[in-house]
Please model this.
Amino acid sequence: MLTDSVLASRKEILSHPDTVYVFTYAEGPSTDGIKMAYSIDQQTWIPFGPGYSFVKSDFGSWGSNKRMFSPSVLYDKGKWYAVWNVNNDTNQFAATESVDFWVWKPQDYPYLDNKENFLHPHLSKENGLFIVRYQTSNGNYYQLKSQDFHIWSSPEPINEQTYTKSNRQKTITLSGNKISGEVHRVSYSFVEGISQKTNDAVLRNNLYNENCGEDENRFKGIKGIKGNLIISNSSKPISTNLIGIFFEDINYSADGGLYAELIQNRDFEYSNLDRGEWSPQSFWELKGDGAQWKISTENPIHANNSHYASIISSNGFVLENSGFDGIVVKKGEQYDISLFAKTMNGKSQKLSIKIKSDGKVLASTSFKVSSGSWKHFKGVLSPSEDTNRGTLTIECNGTSHVGLDFISLFPQNTFKGRKNGLRPDLAQALADIKPSFVRFPGGCVSHGNGLENMYRWKETIGALWERKGQSNLWGYHQSKGIGFYEYFQFCEDIGATPLPVLPAGVCCQNSSRGGHGQQGGLPMSEMDSYAQELMDLIEWANGDSRTSPLAKLRAEAGHPTPFNLKYLGVGNEDLISDVFIERFNYLNKKIKSKYPDIQIVGTVGPFFEGSDYEYGWKLAEEENIDIVDEHYYVNPGWYVNSQNYYDTYNRQGTKVYLGEWASRGNRLENALAEAIHITNLERNGDVVVMSSYAPLLAKQGHTQWNPDLIYFNNTSVYPTVNYWVQQLCGTNCGSQYVYSDMIVKTMSEDRNGKIIDGLSQAANLRLRSSVVVDEASGDMIIKLVNMTPFDPEITIDFGNKIFQPTAEVSVISGKPSDKENKPTQKTLNIQEIKKYTAPAYSFSVIRLKK
Ligand code: AHR
Model:
């Protein structure tokens, strides 16, 4: 007699075939990715997902330029290969491969040396060689060959018949529509695996989209919750650098923001590369009958600052600048005015310099220009009234011809009184986070829009007019007024460690310039001198100014003692292409062999999963990279439902810097999700060594990215509720993570109306805690996040540990949709702490003093 289990396994065997068919296809002429369906008989097809895109094209600048045309897919010896054309005009194509159809290798974009475009490829394998046959819009047909799907032969002309014969495309009916694609025979287990993965992805996506708006349903029937936090006596060391900041010149964060300069386009270096409609004359206005001006480049003040204003007038002129949406000055404060001028008609001229508001002169001075060579004029202006809408005017009477450049109006009142310094209120808001490090100058600003736009640190030091401004890929101009010296000085002023990030010899993969940025790096022949450029930074920052010429530059700028650079970021969320890997490895090896103590921070792409993440981590492990920089911008639900994300990371290898992260909103709900994530970062503070929210600053009316941590305008600073979470965590860090258990119980009514305890995963995930000790002070800090509508009493049990009789408690609370919440402070006695009530939707930080 057959037993039940034998029957069950026979049923299992009989219920599916060994092999089935899959159909790879794309919808529409330009598609969002390669999709797949399966069939047992090639008659009825079932789409995965449905409509799930397994691989999307990463070629081209952000957004709608990332398109995939006519993908051709091949399954050979258990591996998947895909090629497609990236647009209709480029002599490049895309190639990628995957062992499981799930994680695809970061895409390659080989160049075709015949310069014709590449359309409608057919991919095949013949006699052990990969062959791509394609057509061009000139009506030509070619084939490319490769042994390894990596290095491709030059295009060989073929005839139309050969091209057509290699077409494996079939048309099937899928969900009632006729679709073209390619059929492959695979094992049934492959289909099962893909099915499982796509179902999981859909389920996970639902979880990631969970939000507090669903709480009424989520907690239906639950009257309340309660917690018991049991704090153990054991602990582990964690990073003391967990909370830092990431400064990038995005959203007018630098010029017009943190950088205190009041004149916009002070050096006439704006151009249409910054923004289509801009020119060197932008933000300046010339007034006066018979006055004319042009931008001249003959004999400039410096080659890096090659444009200047050449003004001719027969009856006087007024040149006016209204700064960044108006110049803000305060009565009684001092403003340094400086400019370069020369007379260009041999005659002496008097220039009157005025700060005005609504036609009224608030301050003035004058300079006599008599030399035909550039002279640097300096003065101080002290306005008689406050204004938010001031202008700076340079006025000249009578007949004149003058050259003017580098016209600067700079407040003396800067953060810590630094010359060429920072806006005090904004800098103070950053300092108040008590960040343990500052990452700069980007972000995408670091690797740049095309190779020409990569951030070159040496162009940012020295005299201001010798620095090289450049276009900012966020659509405006970087003056480099905040250069590397100013970044390092700021770090020192706020007690933070500098973390400069320089390009890995490749530009942003989303570049719109320079062959779509995809991803021609610097030629390898230039990598030696590029590596030297990176090592020069270490020398400049840390060298002995008595012996090192580079360190002498630092000393001459005002800082004879070393800056104590410990970290160097190489690359920013780059595509982990072969081009990138070759250059990154070159730099990493060179720098580490000369400076073994410098911690190199590598990069693993812009997402928490996917090609760049997987291959970036593979590279990190192979090359034993010190630290890698992870980035993810995801919904609050991701943070709630991914709390064990780091728990399984290898503790012995490469460490993590979570360099950019945020939860896509400035509501309390977002801030609480971020607080939950910080409790998980603390628990994993032995592997996650640093983190920084992004982006940091945003000027109202000039934002390219939302949300941000701090908004501002010319006069005010508006920290978000997310900021207060960062600030509470930055000022309440620990050096030891203390193991603890939070036991969460729900309370509901039974049939007789009696309150009974129960368990709920939803409540567990939303009442979170972490406990750290700051060994410097001996204080123990408890962070409690309550992302539920209840106000649970939490019994806190800290065993025999002894603290002072009162503790400081900071609390942020409100409704999930609130945006204006700020922490309130109170002092509670130990008994009250032991029975702590966490308000609904709140973040509490309890500091128990030794
Ligand atoms: O933080 C804004 C941008 O996000 C950064 O420049 C880039 O690294 C990421 O894509």
Q: What stands out?
A: The pocket of alpha-L-arabinofuranose is lined by residues 248, 250, 442-444, 572-573, 606, 631, 660, 694-695, 705 (CB under 6 Å). The chain has a mean pLDDT of 96. The longest helix spans residues 188-208.
